Amino acid sequence: MKIIITFCLITGLVSSTNVISYSGGSVIMTMGDRHRWSSHTPKYICKFAGGACKTVIQSTAQNDTVFEGRFSLYESKQGHFGVLIRELNPQDAGKYRFGLANNWNREINLKVHHDACCGMSMTVVGHLNKDVSISCDYTVEHKRTWKYFYKLKGHSADWVIFTMPGKNHKENQFYITDDNRLNLFTMTIRELKEEDGGVYFCGTQTWEYPIKVFSTIKTVHLHVTDKVQSSVRVTGFLGGRIMMKCRHPLENPKARFLCRELEGECPEKTYTNVQNEWQQNGGFSLYDDTSGKSLMVFFRNLTEGTYRCGVDVSDFTEQYREVNVEVKEDPCCGKIISQAGYIGETLTISCEHPPTLRASLKHFCKEDENLICQDIRAAGKYSLSDHSQPGLFTVTISNLTLSDAGVYWCGVETSEGHISYTSLTTRVQISIITSKVIGHEGDAVEIRCPYDSKYKQNSKHVCKDECFTEHSDSLIAQRTTQNKTERFSVHDDITAGVFSVNISRVKAVDAGRYWCGVETGDVLMNYLSTELQVVRKEVLQVFGRETLSVSIECSYRGESPESDGKFLCMGQQLASCDKGGVKVSSEKNRTGRFSLSNDAPAGVFTVTITDLREEDSGTYWCGEESLGSSIYTEVHLHVSKGPGSSVLITVCVCITLLLIGASALILYRLKHKETQGSSSSNRTDVTKSDGVSPAACDYEEVNHSGQYPDSDTSVYMNTSPSTNSSDKNKATCIYYTVQLPKDEGPNYTTVSFQKNSDAPKSSTVAFIKEDSSTEYATVKHRPRQE
């Protein structure tokens, strides 16, 4: 850096001095003892342009400093007249005049150069009651110049300490050294105090009577910081969040800030620009809580490191608390769980936390639209309780409403001194379940999503099934009031606060759970859940008869049939499947007379109902639950009266035949010696025994009137007994005709007779079919041999 000062005296003209300075730096000029400051005399400085001197500062104020922008006129601590021009730029170059009214004035030619050596600015942080050093290097041209440190005080500047070339010097707690070998001079401040903070100029000074010119090499911002508490360790967990409260009981601090240390220093602070409002900045948000005299910090993206939360006491003095953030991995934490409940009901949530923090205060909070997890303290709405199992506590939300939907966090709170923090361990997505929507194949269906008025301008989404995984994707999104995608169309009624989705030409694959969501920041919040159940077009008609069995075959589309749920329920409405109407399912494949079997390769499951009853008639639903989707097929079962009446008639016939047979035997034993005769006109057949001639027979006709009077079905029984030894040529024939009703088919009955000791050795009973509606019973026996 070169500073050239030229002083010229020309008769009749004002003397002029050349001053060389550097862009970005400052220049300070002071007068000698003959040009002292006078508070009662007007001061001025002007710049020549076009032959006239345009005023920059002109003041009659009786004070020790006047300024305009970057230009200042002031009284130095020695009482001399001083000029300060800061933050120079090339446009500041030119000819200036300054002075005290008509007492005196001086002119300078200011040149502003750009040089890498000079004009730089730097920040130095010193710790309270510690030593701090500020170093400035210089070029060879300045080896023989005096080295100075000036300090800015408002709009004036005064020297703090100086030294001759290559010398050392001490002034109170300030100490300066000039190392000519390194071209470096250094100022050290012992036992740094708060008032030592500020802006310093380091540079060299030259002078030519009566002006001393100081040009800066560097501008140094010295900050005095005070660590008011030992370091606090804050523990978070991978995938979680941290809410930290940093208390500073200082009244009316200038500002609150957070910064992350790098190599022991805090190169960049993040300040709260507003009070009592959250302010987002990258991976964290800040809140200046004036009532609590604290700084709230919400870490969304956990990063290990050392942080400082502090306050600025003044522009160059700060107090801070040091926080070491560590991020651990624990099986308990970082989980995302989803729970849903119905409006008006109670929802219970299980929250995990590290067992080592069992004694810590439990915490439950809800994210707002800025993704800040806010404390919730609604009386009677939420309750927290410790679980008997270590590392677990439960949260109960009563009387659910639509506004309870959202993202919550479980956590534990820890406090140490003026630092308290809550480590949020588990993310909980709570959705409200609305009434199920039923769609029929081929028809259209609407899904309605009411939302809070604060989300009117937010983008809306509808997501199907897996909406809380990394593979989730919106089925359809809305960024205007209307949108359409293939069979799906959406409409947002901002006035009513309802976002609706219409599905045309419903298919079985559309069945499933749909989630309504809104975008909050860069996060999609799914808040409402609706299940769409699809009923197939096909309606099964199944017929069966009482006392018999029937099978109902139901097809399904599930890709993993072994794990999908299948069931049959009964009821006129589909809702009966949710109200105890399930008769049998794949989980319990046999219930009373109902059983279920699955043919996975064929994609069919079969429900068998045994011992059918008339009350089994009605509407059934074949149900298939596949990955949360419910698909139904309507079934109509018709049960008619079965073969039970024919069986009853058959049994009656058998009993009648037994009675007739018994009567015949009794009559035979009583009349076989007395009765002989020819056959009656109704005789159908007489079976002759060896050596026995036809004999007279008794005839008896039995008509069954019952409930079938028009029936012409007949049963005949022919009995042919043999004669005994005393009456060989006589036989007794007895005929019985039984008129029975017609039935849908023939009935056959076999009757067995027990022989008594006097019966012939050879006797048979046979039923011979003559046509499709008549049964014959023939009883034969051969005569007993003498």
Automatic annotation (TrEMBL):
Principal place where this protein is found? membrane
Chain intervals for the UniProt region annotation (Disordered): 702-727
| Molecular function terms, GO-annotated | transmembrane signaling receptor activity
Q: Where are its TM segments located? A: 647-668
InterPro entries in alphabetical order:
CD300_family_receptors, Ig-like_dom_sf, Ig-like_fold, Ig_sub, Ig_V-set
List the GO cellular component terms: plasma membrane
Q: Which domain of life is it from?
A: Eukaryota
Q: Where along the chain is composition biased (Polar residues)? A: 704-726
Q: Which residues form a coiled coil?
A: none
Q: Which residues form the signal peptide?
A: 1-16
| Compartments reported by the entry | Membrane
Q: Which SMART domains match?
A: IG, IGv
Does this UniProt record's set of keywords contain Nucleotide-binding?
no
- What region holds the Immunoglobulin domain? 121-225, 231-328, 336-431, 434-535, 539-640
Give UniProt keywords alphabetically.
Membrane, Signal, Transmembrane, Transmembrane helix
- What is the protein name for this chain? Polymeric immunoglobulin receptor-like
Organism for this UniProt entry = Pygocentrus nattereri (Red-bellied piranha)
